[in-house]
Amino acid sequence: MNQILSRTRVALAIGLVTATFALPGHAAPRAVEVDRIVAVVNNEVVTALQLRARIDQTKRQLGRQGVQLPPDDVLERQLLERLIVERAQLQLAHESSLRVDDATLERAIERIAGNNTLSVEQLRATLDKDGIAWSRFRDEIRTEILLTRLREREVDSRIVVTDAEIDNFIANNPDAFSGQEFALAHILLRTPESATPQQVEAVARRAEQVMARLRSGEDFARVAAEVSDAPDGLQGGNLGWRPLDRLPALFADVARRMQPGETSQVLRSAAGLHIVRLLDRRGGGADAAVQKLEQTRARHILIKTSEVLSDADAEARLLVTRERVVNGADFGELAKASSADLSAAKGGDLGWLNPGDTVPEFERAMNALQPGEVSLPVRSPFGWHLIQVVERRVQDVTDERKRAAARQALRERKADQAYEDWVRQLRDSTYVDYRLERE
Q: CA 72: distance to chain centroid?
């Protein structure tokens, strides 16, 4: 490893450093910004120019949102840490052959443009006006999709919710589906995996210092942007509007008892120490969230990979199958003939599906389809799928629907906590050599 890192550093030193010499009688050449390494992450590097680009981008975003920026040195350290964690995740994704094809990227960009009531051409012109290169924007969206797929595979797909947990949730959260929503902001002070008593004590002292600043009247969003270890820290820790059942259980318990503007005491979880502020609350109708529960009836064809059938072969086979369906072949008959799922006998019919009934990769692709539309091949922990949405409906409140909503709420809560734990473990197992010397 040391030899690999040494060769990498030498190569980068040669590639990044530019020397300029002034000849007698000639004007001094224009200064050129010299890049340098600010961190080594396993066997890759983060450079000063990459960090500067992220700082400039963050300042523009927070400026548009009206969030007060932390001091430059604090912002620099926080964004470097985020780049390190992001680089570690991307390395894991590449090692496990995760990828985002161009077709998926184009559909994502079309959805972003549509959500902003723009065409793709108008979106590109808007980005150009803001000084954001189209190639860079595409790379950032591809990275976001890749990180989402990594989370789905490593964390979300492994979440299990039992019937006993659903029974307990419904019994202990009678107001969970009342339709009331809470706007919360939070600060996370993360503790390392297998932290020593001294490390825990140091984080506790930091938490008391933060509480003292908040009691003295400092703006919560500014303090969060300066000290929080959560991904949303630079946005002031704002979680947006969420119903109780979509909040982490630790936050939901205190939010019920708080009034807008109040700040919690220091809360402890497996991830570290939290401070929560209730910004506002609204709504509150009888089971409003459940009354709007949407179901999807879908069918699929599953091909499982093996030692003799690679991912590329499975994907290619489903592309041929999709072409046949588009040209008029019966989806159900093709499912009976080729699907490896138990639903093959029913033409791949999965019946009516509630949110959370399928793994995230499948659900995300299914939700993007219109009735009658057939997806491109979709990879999940079970193999490769071809999905067709048959129809959709909105169901009224029943015990079954309430249980489905409870299952989804528990999945999201568990997934959020599991993701925080996973990121912490990944970060602690990553080799990092900091090179960020203050000039």
A: 26
Set out the domains of the chain in order of their start, with CATH numbers.
35-155 (1.10.4030.10), 181-282 (3.10.50.40), 294-394 (3.10.50.40)
The predicted pLDDT at position 398 comes to: 63
How far is 144 from 380, CA to CA, in rounded Å?
18
DSSP 286: T
Between CA 158 and CA 418 the distance in angstroms is 9
Sign of CA dihedral 47, 50, 54, 56: positive
At 246, phi and psi to the nearest 5?
-105, 5
**Token pair belonging to 414:** 């568990």
Give 359-407 as a DSSP string: -HHHHHHHHTPPTT-BPPPEEETTEEEEEEEEEEEE----HHHHHHHHH
Tokens of 357: 């009934």
What are the pLDDT digits (tens) for 25-65? 444 444 455 688 999 999 999 999 999 988 988 888 878 77
**Whole-angstrom Cα distance, residue 289 to residue 404?**
12
Let me know: does 304 contact 317? Beta carbons within 8 Å. Answer: no
